[in-house]
Design a protein that fits this description.
The protein is mainly beta and about 750 residues long. The chain has five helices and 50 strands. The longest helix has 24 residues, at about 580-600. About 55% of the residues are buried.
């Protein structure tokens, strides 16, 4: 269809869908009472980058692009800048008369840095205005236009900035810093209309919003391509790992909205979603058709074009679509400007009152009372959806603690660290800081919620360890058979934490317990669920032989001591805790313990014998780049229910299971059609932590089958285990070797 004709006729897509599985099952479209659905799109402009030498260059990594524009007043597209150059993230100024974009002449480590430029809508007046990467533009109440820029982007192929600044259009030399608390993946960071909120990765894949007024960070989900509503509502979205839905953050609710049902997309992936200057309109690209697997973003393709979608008034669905480009070229990174869009706002009373299938509540945190004391705090990690920010003792700058997975290590259903024989290591590394502080004070305390998956661990499994291997270990909490055991190193035990140990009680698999372990020579005290259970007065030896070591969760450094279970609410202090302080920590975590226990009691196990009916190909690691883990969809026919019961009473189900974990393909994930397996399953809606993960689409399209998650450890029921011991021996890959731009 010709471009002008498409706009003149207001080419419509099918009404969008929304349900408990928002990318598959359609429901009846909802009329939008405050919008005229028969009206064409208001006067608008679109700017984007066209790849003219490589249609696979989805991220515009090479200088082979052309800067393009479309104007509804003429119904035609035009070339702003001929190129070929690397045009990164073009965006409009609030008046729609200028385009701001970023360029870099080369890519890769050591290449020249990214610079910000501007050009008029007619392609004239091009000039460089700053170093860095432009992320947004906003006009303040005084009428001044500000350009928001990511600074200190060391590698032009890695869109993570160390700080965010803004500069006035009238005087680009005058710079104001607005954020430097956490690194920001700025590939699609965006600022709210009042300049208060900024969406982004902090860094990717941890998506959330920053409060630019008070410097606070609020995590939302794991995912990519965040976007912020252009009004003052503070609403933002996170793009899901299937590249088919945006998940809106509304108050304390996460609401999925399908965006891959535009004209000609046919359920395939879309990409580059970005809110326009009007809160009901956005732009994206698609469909992505090139490739053999279900993840095809890296294939780009000449079928990829620019689309505009319009949300309904309630923000529950996309009620109308327009296709802007449909020529056999590859178009990426669109930005949409709507005439008068800056004067529009969301009706938040209407939005919040709307019911939306698939919506869920945000996982609660322990709150400001946790931990009761931050004196001497050296590590803090609540769960993956909490802020996890604090200022370590002896430092002046705040830190956000995260973890990197190795082998069979994933997030659990309540965003805990789930260990299936793999491991987690803290990022940034914490072991050297923890060891040094304990050596200096001759004291330490640890607190956490631990849930063992097995009644007996033989050989012993390391719940956590501060070590450089079995023969050089400062500290460990172990599941030794059916007992919890603490081991720590002193001048008496010399090289490793072997001789100094305390048996702190029996293991009850499946029951979450809260532990506090505190040492002040020569005494070690342990509280279990708020009660003092173990007390040891030993020889009066200090911790002077503690050496810089690696902090690891779920295994020994170097491997050989895998543990199965879950852990969260982690604290480490460089001092001993009093009984009152230990009690206060337990009081703070008690509601979380109750929540976990309630979930345990209500979750009914589901075990079935099933035969594989259909499956997508298992992708290579390069196919899911920059993700490092991937869930694929398998279609099964259940032959026998061994425990529990199936939803809807049917026998055909879809099952998500890990086929790539933390950079390694899971052995045994290629399953032959017709093969029978025993499966341990849980309803997918009980596992919201998977929404930001790379995922395949249903193996059997449009059947709308119940979807489950395979919850058994890869390797136990899946014929093979990723080589976690080898990964631990060489340690986690350096973040510098992994591309960090959003997927």
């Amino acid at each position: 269809m010709a471009l002008a004709a498409a706009v003149a006729t207001g080419w419509l897509g099918i009404a969008a869908c929304g349900d408990t599985s928002p990318d598959t099952a359609p429901t009846e479209a909802v009329e939008a009472p405050s919008l005229d659905t028969s009206a064409p799109i208001p006067p608008h402009r679109v700017v984007w980058a066209r790849s003219i030498d490589d249609p696979r260059d989805t991220w515009l990594n090479r200088p082979g692009g052309r800067l393009m524009g479309f104007d509804s007043e003429t119904g035609t597209e035009h070339v702003l800048l001929e190129g070929p150059e690397r045009f990164i993230r073009p965006l409009f100024t609030p008046d729609g008369d200028w385009v701001v974009f970023s360029t870099s002449p080369e890519v890769g480590p050591g290449a020249p840095g990214v610079v910000v430029e501007r050009v008029r809508w007619d392609g004239s007046g091009r000039e460089v205005i700053a170093q860095g990467m432009a992320i947004d533009s906003r006009r303040d109440d005084a009428g001044e236009t500000w350009i928001y820029i990511g600074r200190e982007i060391g590698d032009p192929n890695n869109y993570t900035a160390q700080r965010i600044e803004r500069l006035p259009w009238s005087d680009p030399e005058r710079v104001e810093r607005v954020w430097d608390r956490l690194p920001v993946t700025v590939d699609n960071a965006q600022v709210s209309g009042d300049g208060r909120w900024m969406s982004g990765g902090f860094p990717w894949p941890e998506a959330g919003r920053a409060d630019l007024h008070n410097g606070e960070f609020e995590p939302v989900e794991q995912g990519c391509w965040t976007s912020m509503a252009p009004d003052d509502s503070g609403v933002m979205w996170v793009f899901d790992g299937r590249h088919r839905n945006v998940r809106l953050r509304l108050g304390d609710e996460i609401r999925p909205v399908r965006i891959n049902d535009g004209p000609g997309v046919d359920g395939f992936e879309v990409y580059h979603p970005r809110w326009s200057n009007h809160p009901h309109y956005f732009a994206c690209t698609g469909p992505y058709l090139e490739g053999e697997t279900d993840i095809r973003i890296t294939g780009g393709g000449t079928a990829v074009g620019i689309m505009i979608g319009r949300f309904n008034a309630e923000l529950t669905t996309v009620e109308r679509w327009w296709r802007i480009t449909d020529e056999p070229v590859a178009d990426f990174y669109p930005d949409l400007w709507i005439a008068g869009g800056g004067d529009e706002s969301l009706d938040m009373e209407l939005v919040l009152a709307a019911e939306s299938a698939g919506a869920r509540r945000i996982t609660p945190t322990l709150g400001e009372q946790w931990p009761p004391s931050r004196e001497g705090l050296q590590l803090l990690w609540e769960h993956a959806r909490a802020g996890n920010e604090w200022t370590p003792a002896g430092q002046s700058e705040p830190l956000r603690q995260q973890f990197e997975g190795l082998g069979n290590a994933v997030l659990g259903s309540d965003y805990q660290l789930q260990l299936w024989g793999g491991a987690f290591t803290p990022a940034p590394a914490a072991g050297e800081r923890i060891a040094a502080s304990a050596r200096a004070s001759n004291q330490f305390s640890w607190s956490g919620i631990v849930t063992a998956a097995e009644a007996k661990a033989d050989p012993p499994g390391r719940v956590m360890s501060l070590s450089n291997g079995e023969d050089e270990r400062n500290f460990s909490l172990d599941q030794d058979g059916d007992r919890w055991v603490v081991r720590w190193r002193t001048m008496w035990s010399r090289d490793s934490a072997r001789d100094t140990e305390v048996d702190i009680g029996p293991v009850e698999p499946g029951r979450p317990i809260h532990m506090v372990i505190s040492y002040h020579q020569p005494e070690l005290r342990v509280w279990i669920d708020g009660e003092l259970e173990s007390y040891r007065r030993g020889r009066n030896h200090d911790l002077g032989n503690w050496t810089p070591q690696e902090w690891i969760i779920g295994n020994e450094w170097g491997g050989g001591a895998p543990w199965h279970g879950r852990i969260e609410a982690l604290l480490w202090y460089d001092r001993a805790l009093t009984s009152e302080e230990a009690g206060a920590i337990h009081t703070a975590v008690a509601p979380r313990l109750q929540q976990l226990q309630s979930r345990r009691d209500s979750d009914q196990p589901l075990r079935v014998r099933a035969r594989l009916q259909a499956a997508n190909p298992v992708p290579e690691l390069a196919d899911i780049h920059p993700y490092r883990s991937h869930l694929e969809v398998f279609s099964w026919q259940v032959e026998e229910v061994l425990e529990g019961e199936l939803e809807n009473g049917g026998s055909d189900i879809e099952v998500l299971q890990w086929v790539i974990l933390n950079g390694d393909t899971v052995p045994g994930s290629e399953i032959d059609i017709g093969e029978a397996r025993l499966l341990q399953l849980a309803p997918l809606d009980r596992h919201p932590q998977l929404e930001g993960a790379s995922q395949g689409a249903p193996a059997v399209e449009r059947l709308h089958l119940p979807v489950y998650y395979r919850v058994e450890p890869p390797g136990d029921g899946w014929q093979g285990v990723p080589p976690v011991d080898a990964r631990l021996a060489r340690g986690p890959e350096s973040p510098a070797t992994v591309r960090n731009d959003p997927p």
